[in-house]
Amino acid sequence: MSSFIEHFQKRYTTKKYDSSRKINPAILDELKQAVRLSPSSINSQPWHFTFVSDESTKQQLATASLFNDKKVLDSDTVVVFSRINDISFFEKQIQENLPEGAVAYYNNMIKPLPEAEIKAWFDKQVYLALGVLLSACSQLAIDATPMEGIESEKYNQILGHDKYHALVAVALGFRAEDDSNQPSVKPKSRVATDKIVTTV
């Protein structure tokens, strides 16, 4: 059995997809459960994940994806990571789902902050889920491309999101054989472990 590190060594930011290959629906279901199980501060879960496989919707998203349009079109599925944008909606959600202590933490430590800082805190939680998805993809042999190069407001309009704000999207699928960014062509480049990890 391959280790997690062996799988992760093989992952990379895919630049070119084979549009003819499709992801097994059961694998997509696993990825949906993976993001659902992502950690967040006080289990706040201030997020929404939209899995887009519909070709018409992908075509619309591609027009709002700047230089990532081809990845959106050729991938099998695009996952849009959004934060809750309506703070009152978020507060209702945690009242209904979190224990009293967690709600008290939010009320005492987060709620008094300016709106922009509250939403920045939401954003941090969403990016935790992004890391979980990329890790799950590597384990399940699905290629992925995280993309901040999107026009968030247009994404919101296309997806009909009034309570959520798109932050980042991830194209999912299978690499094209001639993708020049894959590790067999362009080896991974990372700073040496002893330069960035200290053991005390």
Automatic annotation (TrEMBL):
GO terms for biological process: 2,4,6-trinitrotoluene catabolic process. Keywords: Flavoprotein, FMN, NAD, NADP, Oxidoreductase. GO terms for cellular component: cytosol. GO terms for molecular function: oxidoreductase activity, acting on other nitrogenous compounds as donors, with NAD or NADP as acceptor. Residues 10-173 form the Nitroreductase domain. The keyword Flavoprotein applies. Its cofactor is FMN. Belongs to the nitroreductase family. This is NAD(P)H-dependent oxidoreductase. It comes from Flavobacterium aurantiibacter.
